[in-house]
Design a protein that fits this description.
The chain has about 100 residues and is mostly helical. It is about 55% helix and about 10% strand. The chain is built from four helices and two strands. A hairpin with a 2-residue loop joins strand 1 and strand 2. About 10% of the residues are buried.
Length: about 100
């Protein structure tokens, strides 16, 4: 069984030492990458500064890494909200005919 302790032991410090979820899963001898992501979220909720990026997950040693990740996530949320708004408009236009915007 994959636990928070197991995942925390594997996570390295610093961006240069990031591990992908797949590698973490392999090292823990599991295929449950979703479970690993849920555990990483739980670790963050407990105050562990785990950063996820294109190269994988790592524990931040530098506050600048945390701030950069927060800014990236805020930007992502703005883009998701814009996408949701456009889908809501498109849904209103689905009444037998679709209008291209």
């Amino acid at each position: 069984m994959v636990t928070e302790t197991n995942v925390l032991r594997l996570l390295n410090h610093g961006k240069a030492n990031a591990l992908t979820c797949k590698i973490i899963a392999q090292r823990l001898e599991t295929k449950d990458t979703r479970g690993i992501r849920l555990i990483i979220n739980a670790l963050v909720e407990k105050g562990v500064p785990v950063i996820g990026g294109a190269k994988g997950y790592y524990i931040a040693d530098d506050p600048a890494d945390v701030i950069a990740n927060i800014n990236f996530m805020k930007s992502y949320i703005v883009n998701l909200q814009r996408h949701i708004t456009h889908l809501q408009i498109a849904a209103k236009n689905i009444n037998g005919q679709m209008r291209m915007v």
